[in-house]
Amino acid sequence: MERVLNYIGGRSEKPSTNEYIDKIDPRTNIKQKEVASSGPQDVDNAVAAAVAALPAWRDMRPSERGRVLVEVARSVRSSVGRLGDIERAKTGKPGREMAQLIDLTAQYLEFYGGIVNAMDGDVINVGPNYHIYTRRDPFGVVGIILPWNAPLHQAARAIAPALATGNTIVAKPSEFTSGSLVEFARLAEEAGLPAGVLNVVVGMGPVIGPAMANNLAVRKISFTGSVRAGQELGKIAAERILPLTLELGGKSANIVFDDADLDAAAKGSTTAFTWNSGQWCAAGTRLLVQESIYDQFVTKLLASVATLRVGPDDDASYGAITTQAQYEKIQAFFEIARRDGLTPATGGKIASDPALGGGWFIEPTIYTDVTNDMQIAREEVFGPVLSVIRFRDEADAVRIANDSEFGLSAGIWSRDIGRVHRVAGQLEAGRIVVNEYGGGFVQTPTGGYKNSGYGREQGIEALAHYTQLKSVIIRL
Ligand code: NAD
After folding, report:
1. Residue 281 designated active-site
2. CA 370, CA 363: separation in Å to the nearest integer?
3. Percent of the chain with pLDDT strictly greater than 70
4. Per-residue model confidence as pLDDT tens digits over 68-125
5. pTM for this prediction
6. 128-141 pLDDT tens trace
7. Which of the listed residues 23, 174, 324 should we mutate to test ligand 1's pocket, taking the one with most ligand atoms within 8 A of CB?
8. What does the alpha-carbon distance between residue 101 and residue 105 come to, in Å, rounded to a whole number?
């Protein structure tokens, strides 16, 4: 049986615990691999490797570091088949989604490999007799903790800016989807990244996370995952005054006004809750529809959703649910919705087509006439499940959209440009997408308001989150 091991200081390393976790293929429910269940000792070894590699990497010219990242991007692009196969077997994604995510993985490396050359400080004028300037220094060793829903894409989003700015890294992929990041680290080294600059420790979050946060040589952590785990990490970080970027969950509102192109909105709103099987932090899972077009729009939406085909093959609209726990959690929400008096307008069950074998597939599910106080409208399901909610007017839409503990993303569908800007300004979310629901550009900063987190990934903005600002004050 193939085993996924740690990658530390340029070498494959068995876990010091000698313990392994089973990895099941979500497309078939059959055991596929064993994954190292590492311990604190493995984290300390990886941090030591990152500390040793730091001076040479930090002191390279930004243009040289950038060139290495662009080479890594090239290698990712030429290994798209291999990386895609590893990732598909772990996540259950169809080929189309996978190709999109690997392309974005390479784009992060290309973008930060280039833009790091434009990272400057400022000169601050306080009058004669002083020359004052600011500069941006890397933190040193950065810890990166990752979820399972888009493994390589999430990894590259944090790894690329952290490396570009001269940090070295200890990364921890989700225990459910570890293989592609280990392979990525190997490829990166072949492409010119020095050994020890990117280390991967594989294992369980409650073991690896605290070990990472408690190692004093780790100077910053970027965490992408659930609110609950983010809070656990935050407690340790508070004790240590350890800077964090937290990219957490969402329950994003997608608002359709009566002046929108309703056909485009129906199609876009379908993608909003089903892309990646709904396992998407920014998924538009609260669909707010103006009451004057409510019935008409729901009819269009149901017609759009009826065209979806669930499965593991390349052309499927969306694939499997990646973990068994998540598969069961989604089904538990069907029961919660039923107890709240809701009947699904479509779906509300697992996809039982015999051609899908024993895999973890869920039908696209829509609940209509949901009110925003119901549990299904308040909690993140992380599956292809949509709550449709009515609103009266613009003010009502904004009030309902903002009545959530989350604030990751939001969608607006309208032809009224004044309304679009007004509502975009009033929504409490880190990213607003208008007249489509996607907007996955590496150049655009992304991150949460409220419980969806703090700090920003993506865009030039991320360079600031992987560096610390220093002022140099010179008396002339
Ligand atoms: P999770 O929090 O269970 O796991 C995320 C990572 O944290 C994993 O590597 C896990 O092993 C680790 N972890 C678990 N407990 C930990 C602890 N106590 N300390 C440190 N690390 C710990 O989340 P998940 O189920 O893998 O991912 C789904 C969640 O991630 C959803 O809530 C989703 O919205 C969120 N997410 C957010 C973004 C974003 O950009 N905001 C992107 C993707 C996913």
Report:
1. yes
2. 19
3. 100
4. 999 999 999 999 999 999 988 888 888 888 888 999 999 999 999 999 999 989 999 9
5. 0.97
6. 999 999 999 999 99
7. 174
8. 6
User: Cβ distance 198 to 168 under 8 Å?
Assistant: yes
Report the alpha-carbon distance of residue 111 to residue 114 in Å, rounded. Answer: 5
Residue of the nearest CA to atom 13 in ligand 1?
A: 205
- Give me the DSSP letters along 111-158: HHHHHGGG----EE--STTEEEEEEEEE-SEEEEE--SSSHHHHHHHH
Q: Mean pLDDT in the chain?
A: 96
Ligand 1 atom having least distance to the Cα of 157: 40
Residue 457 annotated to the active site: yes
User: Which residues have CB under 6 Å of ligand 1?
Assistant: 145-149, 154, 172, 174-175, 204-206, 209, 224-226, 229, 232-233, 247-250, 281, 380, 382, 408, 448, 453
Which of 21-25, 176-180, 184-188 has the lowest average pLDDT? 21-25
Of the residues 199, 281, 363, 380, only one is catalytic, namely 281
pLDDT of 26 > 90? The answer is: no
- Please check whether residue 169 is in contact with residue 133, taking contact to mean a CB–CB distance below 8 angstroms: no
Which residues, including other chains, have CB under 8 Å from residue 460's CB and lie 6 or more apart? 115, 118, 443, 445
User: What is the reported pLDDT for 353?
Assistant: 85
* Ligand 1, atom 3, residue with closest C-alpha: 226
pLDDT digits 0-9 by tens, 314-335: 889 999 999 999 999 999 999 9
Q: Which of 224, 452, 456 to mutate to test the pocket of ligand 1 (most atoms within 8 A of CB)?
A: 224
Per-residue pLDDT, 291: 98
**Cα(174)–Cα(327) distance, integer angstroms:** 16
Element (H, E) at 311: none
pLDDT value at position 28? 85
Q: Taking Cα atoms as reference points, which of 69, 77, 13, 79 lies closest to residue 46?
A: 13
Q: What is the pLDDT of residue 354?
A: 84
Q: How far apart are CA 224 and CA 171, in angstroms?
A: 12
CA of 151 relative to ligand 1 center, distance in Å: 11
**Domains defined along the chain, listed by start:** 3-248+452-475 (3.40.605.10), 253-441 (3.40.309.10)
> Can you tell me the distance from the alpha carbon of 391 to that of 288, in angstroms, rounded to the nearest whole number?
6
Do residues 319 and 312 lie in contact, with contact meaning Cβ atoms separated by under 8 Å? Answer: yes
- Answer for the pair 391, 256: CB distance below 8 angstroms, yes or no: no
